[in-house]
Amino acid sequence: MTLKKALVCGAGGFIGSHMVRRLRGEGYWVRGVDLKHPDFGPSEANDFVIADLRNRESWEAVLDENVDEVYQFAADMGGAGYVFSGTNDAHIMHNSAMINLHMADFAVKQKVKKVFYSSSACIYPAYNQEDANNPKCGESTAYPAAPDSEYGWEKLFSERLYFAFERNYGLDIHVARFHNIFGPEGTWQGGKEKAPAALCRKVAEQADGGEIEIWGDGEQTRSFLYIDECIEAVRRLMASPFRGPVNIGSEEMVTINNMARMIMNIAGKNQSIKHIPGPLGVRGRNSDNKLIREKLGWAPSQSLSDGLAKTYPWIVSQMAAQKG
After folding, report:
1. Segment holding 213, helix H or strand E
2. In terms of domains, do 20 and 168 share one?
3. Residue 293 domain-assigned (yes or no)
4. 213, 260: one domain
5. Residue-range definition of the domain harbouring residue 278
6. Is 177 found in the same domain as 89?
7. pLDDT digits (tens, 9 = 90+) for 97-145
8. Conformation bin of residue 17: beta by default, left when phi > 0, alpha when psi is -120 to 50
9. Catalytic residues
10. Are residues 118 and 202 in the same domain?
11. Is residue 294 a part of any domain in this protein?
């Protein structure tokens, strides 16, 4: 029997490296490509290529006509400290757009059977996310478009790019809008980490009775999805006739203050919170999972506390290893 062949773009990153592992477990032959190897261990890809996917020549080297499925996670991105600072906007838009323009073109030329594109909840209009307790993030609310960041604008552009290639060239595209994916092997320091990892690190750094810092008043709301459920949702979407776009996220909305308290509880620490100025993004965001339930008969269900209970000790172990 011939093995299915998959290309995972962004395979050196958090979600991409987990997808490589899942596909290998399902019996795929997998080629991973990224600017770097995974940060927290060797890739499980059959073939890992270091390449810059902004360059056309890289696609000629990594995407051949024998590839059955492409998983496109490669992007210039990070947490709020990176996306909302205003100093990375040109890089974010240029780098990610170039990757996706080449990806769509080569997928058609090499007759790829299926393509997955990872979009983001950041495409949703800021005007629907001003109420921390009642954000509107159903898939149909994406227009009139008004993302709160250039990262969101590029993701929305690329959604439209891929669906245009589907209409005009027959590309089989599946698109999901991710809502704050977290878990072990995710970035936890350096400025590109997201809130769960940043808060785990801050709690771990401070002793019981200490103080951690949170940007803003901490009453901004989000939902966070554990990595295993994200991967499961993507695989179910790719196995279905549904194209998307569809939300892949948790419906368990939490304030940043309360998530910090969850982590303190997991750590067995009682700490105080100091609120400081910092980039925030929208006031409230939560996944709306009506469509994924309708189309896939499934939706993520793992609690945030369960995911944090797995993530916190992993970050503690990374900090200990770093100290040597």
Report:
1. strand 211-215
2. yes
3. no
4. yes
5. 187-223+252-283+303-323
6. yes
7. 999 999 999 999 999 999 999 999 999 999 999 999 999 999 999 999 9
8. alpha
9. 151
10. no
11. no
Are 71 and 123 members of one domain? yes
Rounded to whole angstroms, the Cα distance separating 211 from 274 reads 7
Residue 180's region, left for phi above 0, alpha for psi from -120 to 50, else beta, is left
**Residue type (1 letter), 198:** A
Distance CA 13, CA 21 (A): 12
CA 7 to chain centroid, in Å, comes to 17
* Pairing verdict, β 69-72 and 47-50: unpaired
Joined together, the tokens standing for residue 254 give 């939490």
Which two structure tokens, joined as six digits, stand for 138?
Answer: 């159903």
pLDDT digits (tens, 9 = 90+) for 69-106: 999 999 998 777 788 788 899 999 999 999 999 999 99
Same domain for 113 and 168, yes or no, is yes
Q: Where are the alpha helices (DSSP H) in the chain?
A: 14-25, 56-62, 80-83, 89-109, 150-169, 195-205, 227-238, 256-267, 290-296, 304-323
CA-to-CA distance for 247 and 175, rounded, in angstroms? Answer: 9
Using DSSP, state whether 188 is helix, strand or coil. coil
| Pairing of the two strands 181-182 and 225-226 | parallel
Number of Cβ atoms within 10 Å of the Cβ of 41:
9
Q: Record the tokens describing residue 40, joined without a space.
A: 């927290």
Same-domain pairing of 219 and 229: no
- Residues 91, 163, single domain; the answer is yes
First-to-last C-alpha distance (Å) of the chain: 47
b/e map 86-111, b = 16+ CB within 10 Å: eebbeebbebbbbbbebbbbbbbebe
The domain that holds 94 is classified in CATH as 3.40.50.720
Q: Are 34 and 72 in contact, with CB atoms under 8 Å apart?
A: no
